[in-house]
Amino acid sequence: MADLDSLRTRWSRALEGARDAGARADPAPYADNLLARWSEPQRRYHTVDHLAAVLDHIDVLEAHEKYADDVDLVRLAAWFHDAVYLPDRSENEERSARLAERALPEAGVSAAGTAEVARLVRLTVTHAPADDDPNGQVLCDADLAILAASPDAYAAYTAAVREEYVFVPPEAFREGRAAILRQLLELPRLFHTPYGTREWEGPARRNLESELSLLTG
Q1: What is the pTM of this model?
Q2: Nearest CA to 31 among 80, 72, 89?
Q3: For burial by CB atoms within 10 Å, which of 4, 14, 195, 199 has the most?
Q4: pLDDT digit string (tens) for 108-149?
Q5: Cα 189 from chain centroid?
Q6: Are the C-beta atoms of residues 116 and 133 closer than 8 Å to each other?
Q7: Other CB atoms closer than 10 Å to residue 120's CB: what's the count?
């Protein structure tokens, strides 16, 4: 399980880097509220481990490319992007974005910064950032980087996703999951940053094709 104290520190650093100079709101209560959300019992994949992984992948992209316009806003968007998550609901991203719109001004983030974080959270509905949207490309690539994991880690990811959707009958789940995999494989590209395209595209497609074969074979 992810180190919660380390995550609190990462939250504080991102917030300090993103908010207005002179802001005095204590970062700790916001971190604790978000970590409680990410630790809810209905979660199996969208947990604090996923949050930590997305933050790690943002760090990888920043270290290799310094690609985002404002990486601290991207990190805040990572914290909020699945802060509201119920597997049987379709409006999780919208509700997560609205949570960011309420919390971040209180924490000292400007109206423009808050709007950018909320925009990025909403972008995770489609994971289709524009060519001139480096912030969106970094967040979407970091969120989807699990697709390029090692075969064992990818298998653990797919098992956790299935556990989150345990209420869906097996045949319906297989059909729905296969449809999602086909949609992903039909995309001209899964990743949008130069690093993601170079390092993650090939492994991700191999994992998706392997899973699809297992579901439909």
Answers
A1: 0.96
A2: 80
A3: 14
A4: 999 999 999 999 999 999 999 999 999 999 999 999 999 999
A5: 18
A6: no
A7: 26
